[in-house]
Amino acid sequence: MSLWSSTLGVNSHGFTAKKNPNLNSFFTPELSKSYIHIPCASPICKTRTRDLFVPASCELNNKPCHMAVSYADASSIEGTLAYENFVIGSSIRPGFLFGCMDSGFSSNSDEDSKATGLMGMNRGSLSFVSQMGFPKFSYCISGFDSSGVLLLGDTRFSWLKTLNYTPLIQISDPLPYFDRVAYTVQLEGIKVGTKMLDLPRSAFLPDHTGAGQTMVDLGTQFTFLMGPVYNALRNEFLQQTREVLRVFEDPNFVFQGAMDLCYQVDESPGTSFSNLPRVSLMFQGAEMSVSGERLLYRVPEMNKGSDSVYCFTFGNSDLLGIEAFVIGYHHQQNVWMEFDLVKSRVGFAEIRCDLAGQRLEMGL
């Protein structure tokens, strides 16, 4: 989907609405002279939504075109499709398709409560980049509450490291479990420290149904791996950290429904995760390393005695019912991500995203 905006209307609680929302952060269609809702009878409703997992639904032809979008971490949003003028810089794009969201569910409500909408950047015909026609875009996600970067177009900066590129994978034939609008890359292996997991290459390849693709996704917080690969990673990480981390022993606790490896951590001064073995995701032609604080995530408002509970930031996609590998945004933090749609490739390099933002503000 292109853009989703929290909308005030009959049902205005919204996907990202706060308990005491700032009404200025909501879009109110009644106040816009250029807003046009798309009815069910429109060809747009019937044809342009075909690349969604759940096509648009309608009650009557004169009713608004209703849509629902779900993400790999089980978050979802619902709303109606509409036209509106979209302004970026000094340019105006009339008749821009977007979604007016009126309800939804989030697996990470604390973070999502800070937002007022979603921008779809995938390869579908309704996405923001597809409608705007950008050949390339880049983003850099900062950790915690620091500002990040989104650039639309080419990126050439002297302070940016050389990017490592991996090809985007596309399958033209429709397969039941292959998401054709996702940014799909080929994961080829995983290392923990210096040890490569003993897994066949076939463990990372999509099968004849499309199950097993590897998606780079901004709509999902953490990284999820197919069962056999996840179990191999889990066992090796446990083995290499048994002397430095204490496992949280509760067989009934699974964070966010898919993350079952958690630890008790004494957060006394000087506590650091810098001594943990890095996990390296090996792609075709490139490598993405996850280290330090990005390996563990503190479970909000959960403690074991005086200790905090942290969970390993890789989860089992089988527990979510997802037939795919998903690289979530938590592991993209402080990594410059470039999507070159002309050359069909993804490039990345580690960088402090907050500093990158400051350099851009200074015009460097």
Shape: globular
CATH topology of the largest domain: Cathepsin D, subunit A, domain 1
Low-confidence stretches: 9-23
Instruction: Tell me the radius of gyration.
Output: 21 Å
User: What CATH architecture of the largest domain would you give?
Assistant: Beta Barrel
Structural class based on helices, strands and sheet pairing? mainly beta
Percent of residues in helices comes to 10-25%
Strand content: 25-35%
Give the termini separation.
Answer: 33 Å
The total of beta strands comes to 24
Number of domains in the coordinates?
2
Supply the number of helical segments.
6
Average pLDDT number: 85
Give the CATH class of the largest domain. Answer: Mainly Beta
Fourth-level CATH superfamily of the largest domain = Acid Proteases
The secondary-structure element order is: EEHEEEHEHEEEEEEEEHEEEEEEEHEEEH
Let me know the largest β-sheet.
6 strands, mixed
